[in-house]
Amino acid sequence: MVGAQLGSAAIKTSLIAGAIGLGLVIVFMIAVYWIPGLASSIALCIYTVLMVLLLNGFDITLTLPGIAGIILSIGMAVDANVIIFARIREEIGTGKTVKSAMKIGFQKALSAIIDGNVTTLIAAAVLYFMGTGTVKGFAQTLALGIAVSMFTALFVTRLLLNAFYAAGLKDEKFYGRTKEHKNIDFLGKKAIFFVLSGAVIIGGFVAMGIHSSKSGNALNYSLEFKGGTSTNVTFNEDMSIEELDEKVVPKIEEISKDANVQTQKVQGTNQVIFKTVTMEVDQREELSNWLEEEFDVNPDTIMTETISSTVSSEMRTGAVVAVIVSSICMLIYVALRFKDVRFGASSVLALLHDVLVVLAFYAIARVSVGNTFIACMLTIVGYSINATIVIFDRVRENLKAGGSRAELKEVVNSSISQTLSRSIFTSLTTFVMVAVLYVLGVSSVKEFALPLMVGIACGTYSSVCLAGAFWYLLRTRIAKKEKKETN
């Protein structure tokens, strides 16, 4: 029996895509960061081996949501290394020795790494205890991946860097030097960013309204959400899942207009069950005729029946509630750590923006909404908060008590500019891994990877262009009101 969500072909292509993506990330890290990049690449390889061993040790089933959790944790492992290396280069740029720069770089990067990973771990814990099925599986792999990624980034990478330095690689040319940052006026363009984001989100709601009035469904729900058709076919030979995926599934996708065809073999027989969205009578007849002509299947052995949804309304509600609760917990943590609730509120606003934009993409592009939809949204929430935390950590560091509004604006712009390379590089490496998954994956994997790529790009945009602006507006508006009340 092959699981309904992820067949052997999907697993195989996903693993190949993961290996290629990891290889590209390693090449990128070495090309950009040289010796530190080499150290992080070795650490990433160790991370991969540890994850495989732990997944087997804990007997965690590999699913699409699980793969999403692993991709996200790899992205966060890369992110931690990028933060550390950027700090080391900054310290070298101020004139410190390489040895001193490495020590200070790790110290200064620690708070951003811990805060970013802990907020995502909080989300994973809430999703695990409150979620069900695929949500719980996503939380498991994400939590495990984050724990391993923090270990490899903070301990293995550091150990390797010190080993390379002790081996004689002490010249700063092997580590790089950060040049003085040119501040970009992100806050000066906040009105443009707000209008752009608002237009996309409103466009999504309009698209959902149009589709709802035409078909009764705001989104393109898959069979997991609204049920569908199960077709039981008895072939004349015992075909493997790979052969079915290659010879039969593409035609069924074409006839049913469903890119998430689920395939199950009945053990000990030549029977195969294909599950699709609901097919009309003419579609069922077309499929039956094609099977008869192409494989000489006896039409009397082709049986179809209507199946109910596998994602109940309770499961959907539970997933939404889990995301809301985890967002509230992350808000509280960020507010306590930064001693300012406005940091937490701004982070959650940025998360809400990302979810709504990706939702708009699902509505406009009519991407199928199934179990992977929940995993995609959860991945975006975990990814986006980490990027925002890094920027806010720099804002906290650069903040000057009692500064004027003009100085506050400069602090925000400077903090975003200083962390811009980190935001771009981390997003690029994670995007590349998902893009390879999209290019090589089967249809169900593609429909998962595409919105995930949109979410990664959107998460970077919101962290860089919106989160700081949200905090600045909350800070200046509330401060202004408090001053009026005092007077």
Walkthrough of the structure:
With 487 residues, the protein is mainly alpha-helical. It is built from 16 helices and four strands. It has helices at residues 8-33, 35-57, 64-93, 98-130, 134-166, 190-215, 223-226, 241-247, 249-256, 281-295, 313-338, 341-365, 371-398, 405-418, 420-440, 443-486; strands at residues 228-234, 262-265, 271-277, 303-307. It starts with 7 loop residues before the first helix and ends with a helix. Mean pLDDT is 85; it is low at 1-5.
Q: What integer value in Å does the Rg equal?
A: 25 Å
Main beta-sheet strand count, sense and barrel state: 4 strands, antiparallel
Low-confidence stretches: 1-5
Sheet with most strands: strand arrangement: 2-3-1-4
Compute the average pLDDT.
85
Q: Approximately how much helix is present in the residues?
A: over 70%
Number of helices: 16
The share of residues in extended strands comes to: under 5%
Q: What overall geometry do the principal axes of the alpha carbons give?
A: globular
Chain oligomer state: single chain
The computed structural class is mainly alpha
Distance linking N and C termini:
73 Å
Number of distinct beta strands: 4
- SSE order in H/E notation? HHHHHHHEHHEEHEHHHHHH
